[in-house]
Amino acid sequence: MADTFLITTTTTKRNRPDDETETKKKLMTPSPQNILTDPAAALASTRHEFGEHGGVNMSIEASATFTVMEPETLRRIFAGELGPDSDYYVYSRHFNPTVLNLSRLMASLEGTEAAYCTASGMSAISASILQLTKSGGHVVASRTLYGGTHALLQHFLPRTCNITTTFVEISDIESVDEAIIEGKTNVLYFESVSNPTLTVANIPELSRIAHKKGVTVVVDNTFTPMVISPVKLGADVVVHSISKFVSGGADIIAGAVCGTASLVNSMMDLQQGAIMLLGPTMNAKIAFELSERIPHLGLRMKEHSNRALTFATRLKKLGLKVIYPGLEDHPHHELLKSIHNKDYGYGGLLCIDMETEDRANKLMSYLQNYGQFGFMAVSLGYYETLMSCSGSSTSSELSSEEKVLAGISPGLVRMSVGYIGTLEQKWNQLEKAVTKLQEYGFANKN
Predict the structure, then answer these.
(1) Is residue 183 part of a domain?
(2) Residue 144 belongs to some domain of the structure
(3) Range of the structural domain that residue 328 is part of
(4) DSSP letter assigned to residue 444
């Protein structure tokens, strides 16, 4: 398909009168200034997709395949002469109108030219790396990553695609620079705030050294939508597991790739596209549901961040070893303060280092079963607080040595702070459990 097909602002509806189309176009045109400043402003300025019969919500295009009026039209679609920019679709593994609308919202959220959504966060990550590299390619990546991403880079891609990865301490700019081999390295990959250690990446400086050597910067922004805008800071591509904060309901698996129109269209190419050919297709009904949740993402992120900062501050006073980049004693607090979108705080995740797995398990058990504060479960971004011991769960793909290098303590409890109930109600539950645990001698002192 031609590179001009993925349009992020307006399209011409074939079945809509011209005057109405033009009116709607004016309502839907985004403001470039908003895209560069505030994610919420960008979302509000993005085209609004109305329903087929004038509904304020878009219709769901659940068709797997699409009809045409003339045989010649189908030939022109496959020849790359017609496409979604003029409202022509062929098959939903390629472009789907409902998924494309969600993708426009994700592009606005991240301030990118284009985006396309996939069936999972891992499929978005995998497709991006495969599109940007080739057999014999090289990736430089943070040694502290989500376990699934680490396994993809460390084990799967070398075995299946001859793509190798050098893992580095992402906060050591000099080491990153040395690991990037000009002419060989294709991608610099890291998380804006690392899973699970909450290390903050210096995106402007990392992007500068990568671009100096012609390397594409891919950033996983799953932990900090709205909070950090990686492309504004110099990154090229942003990937998301939108199962997390963007969804907010712990009921949907989905991903997104945000970047230039040329990149996203190359991923949808009929002969060379990683998304098109590997087929991690998002269901249109899922895309509709997510499109209805994005408008209040900003409100949710503010409250996630507000409660995380409040709880982190109070837990520290109780004597626990708390890791949260919003705290002034966090080693990357000033960095995050300088790059974040200040209206959205410092993110909704905090960690408590209980030093041993036994202590970590005791803490989580007390919080869930005694204090009624949150659930022992992986994932994040839910309205209830979710807790997991990272070393034995979401980072279990790393070897013991790799966990040490990544700074993952055996007793590190990752906590995705929810917003259900009142803040003081939830704090009382949290404090009650921690105090009880301390009485029994299980809680460590900072």
Answers:
(1) no
(2) no
(3) 296-439
(4) P
Q: Which two tokens stand for residue 417?
A: 């702070």
Would you call 155 helix, strand, or coil by DSSP?
helix
**What's 388's domain CATH number?**
3.90.1150.10
pLDDT tens-digit profile, the chain (446 residues): 444 445 444 444 444 444 444 433 333 334 343 345 799 999 998 988 898 889 999 999 999 999 999 999 999 998 889 999 889 999 999 999 999 999 999 999 999 999 999 999 999 999 999 999 999 999 999 999 999 999 999 999 999 999 999 999 999 999 999 999 999 999 999 999 999 999 999 999 999 999 999 999 999 999 999 999 999 999 999 999 999 999 999 999 999 999 999 999 999 998 999 999 999 999 999 999 999 999 999 999 999 999 999 999 999 999 999 999 999 999 999 999 999 999 999 999 999 998 888 889 999 999 999 989 999 999 999 999 999 997 666 656 667 777 777 677 888 999 999 999 999 999 999 999 899 888 877 665 55
> Which tokens is 410 given?
């055996």
| Structural domain total, the chain | 1
In a domain, 308, yes or no: yes
48 falls within a domain: no
Q: Structure pTM? A: 0.90
Residue 211, CA atoms < 13 Å, CB-side half-sphere: 11
- The string of DSSP codes covering 241-288 is ETTTTTT-SS----EEEEE-HHHHHHHT-TTT-HHHHH--BPPHHHHH
